[in-house]
Amino acid sequence: MTQNEETLLRRAIELAAEARAGGNPPFGSLLAGPDGQVLAEERNTTLTDADISAHPELKLARWAARELDPATAAGTTMYTSCQPCGMCTGAIQRSGLGRVVFALSNEQLDGLKPGGGWPQVPLDGPALYEEARAPVEGYYK
């Protein structure tokens, strides 16, 4: 990791501290262009916005998909205080961002939570393949 990357990752950690000071969970992220310049910053606002999806990584992925052309998005790096959750990872992939650098892993984060993290929700499926594929088939061409 370069010194500039460390500086950007430390800024993401500062954003996490700002989120916590503002009454939200302690997570922060920023998006940097290929030259290392910060394009956008976000903090977790899930509590103050009363929105369980207001993660900084998701907000930045949505911003990038809306504001950046695909080639520019592919050249970006997201620096984030914690490894993105599944929801945010999906948004990052769909937005076409180039890379993610994180400080805490999800396993390390779970070790800091009483009870070790979120409970698993049982998933059942796949089911009704023929019916379910009808509206999807041919869409991804």
Automatic annotation (TrEMBL):
PROSITE patterns: CYT_DCMP_DEAMINASES_2 (PS51747). InterPro entries: CMP_dCMP_dom, Cytidine_deaminase-like. It comes from the Bacteria. Residues 3-120 form the CMP/dCMP-type deaminase domain. This is Nucleoside deaminase.
